[in-house]
């Protein structure tokens, strides 16, 4: 694997971790030795992700719907309690509602 920096033992939060790009990023970071906090939108998706990750010990899985801003502070407090100092975040989860995203 080609790397430009050493991510081993650094904590990385990945949102949208249970699907598509987010899941691929989680796997890549774990393979590179990072400690990953993987965030899925629902408890069911988090449980499925935890089961898929098997016995990997350098990952914690969390359920939080980040569209609700009141979940953000408790999520990061939980991550801080389980892991160590956060080094990076990868945001792959998102949502759009009806209507325009930006004016124009």
Structural description of this entry:
This protein has 104 residues and is α/β, with parallel strands linked by helices. It has a single domain (11-91), classed as NAD(P)-binding Rossmann-like Domain (Rossmann fold, 3-Layer(aba) Sandwich), CATH 3.40.50.720. The protein is built from 3 helices and 4 strands; from the N terminus they run E-H-E-H-E-H-E. It has helices at residues 20-31, 43-53, 72-82; strands spanning 11-15, 35-40, 59-63, 86-91. The chain has a 4-stranded parallel β-sheet, sandwiched between helices. Strand 2, helix 2 (43-53) and strand 3 (59-63) form a beta-alpha-beta unit. The longest helix has 12 residues, at 20-31. The chain starts with 10 loop residues before the first strand and ends in a 13-residue tail after the last strand. The model has no long low-confidence stretch (mean pLDDT 86).
């Amino acid at each position: 694997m080609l790397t430009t920096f050493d991510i081993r033992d650094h904590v990385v939060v990945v949102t949208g971790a249970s699907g598509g790009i987010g899941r691929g990023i989680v796997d890549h970071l774990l393979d590179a030795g990072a400690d990953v906090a993987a965030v899925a939108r629902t408890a069911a998706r988090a449980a499925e992700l935890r089961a898929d990750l098997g016995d990997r010990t350098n990952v914690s899985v969390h359920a939080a719907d980040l569209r609700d801003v009141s979940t953000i502070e408790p999520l990061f407090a939980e991550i801080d309690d389980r892991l160590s100092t956060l080094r990076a975040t990868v945001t792959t989860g998102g949502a759009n509602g009806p209507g325009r995203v930006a004016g124009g």
